[in-house]
């Protein structure tokens, strides 16, 4: 609609004072008139500010507000990264900092001490099923070194180590960490047999996965530090878990029987070894005794023979008497005179002494 009053509609955006004046040619509005009306309006908003000085004041205020917009605060758990026209410029420490106002510079403050979590092989349930996790078989089923399948659910905890690398070298941090974690776990599981993985080697596997993940992320320049790797569940696939448990029970029985056999062997073998040592020592003692007795008899015989060669009659008589002493010493004795006329009773004084001592 035209901005004059001839049409009967007053739609003049400049107020009731009529439209702006036209140029002397009558075809275009007068620019000076438009500026004058703007000055009047700003003068009503800011009393006392008129003319060009009012615009300068307004521009100064706006410039000051724009300059103050460069202040920003970095929290204790954050690290400031300043970008100049989208390119990394510098890092700032926690506290109040300043950068050139937008759009010249901007600041990003990622949290560098917050521990982030990535789950592989499982997903947390919704609010209605709190604490319930959902398995993701395409992530958790892995092939072991002995060509068995194992179901591994694990979690990776990580923090930001270098904020500029974290912001610019990787596009999707969570996705990168998840892909590296799954690939690394498959490599470690593929290097080991299923039995150690399910039993005593879990902590060793966690440390190996952590070290290999860190090496890979450092090669990417991801600016991320892996703090922990926690294997939540390590089981055979659900379809064969019952049969696998039967096998495990049989192995446990086998191990128990082996341990009992080793226990029995550890008890019997030392006893047998001790008995063998005792018999061997008794045999050695008997041999030494027999040899010594034989040596003694040989020595005694040699000495008697030497005496016999010197005095045969005396030696023969002594040997006869010693033999009678040995034979008659163990029998009841009766003494008969040589002519056979009388019997002399034998008084066993040694037996009387023994009887007296026994009483």
Summary of the model, kept short:
By secondary structure, this protein is α+β, with helices and mostly antiparallel strands. It has helices at about 30-45, 50-70, 135-140, 165-170, 175-190, 195-200, 200-220, 240-310, 310-330, 350-359, and strands spanning about 70-75, 80-85, 85-90, 95-100, 105-110, 115-120, 120-125, 135, 140-145, 150-160, 225-235, 335, 345. Among the domains are: about 30-70, no CATH class; about 70-110, no CATH class; about 115-235, 2-Layer Sandwich (Tetrahydropterin Synthase, Chain A).
Classify the secondary structure makeup into a structural class: alpha+beta
**Could you please say which CATH topology of the domain at 116-236 applies here?**
Tetrahydropterin Synthase, Chain A
Largest pleated sheet:
4 strands, antiparallel
Overall pLDDT: 78
* Strand content bin: 15-25%
Secondary-structure map:
Blueprint (H helix, E strand, L loop, with lengths): L30 H15 L5 H18 L2 E4 L5 E5 L2 E6 L2 E4 L6 E4 L7 E5 L1 E3 L8 E3 L1 H4 E3 L5 E12 L2 H6 L4 H18 L3 H5 L3 H19 L3 E12 L5 H70 L1 H17 L6 E2 L6 E2 L4 H10 L1
Antiparallel strand pairs: 1-4, 2-3, 2-5, 6-10, 7-8, 9-10, 10-11, 12-13
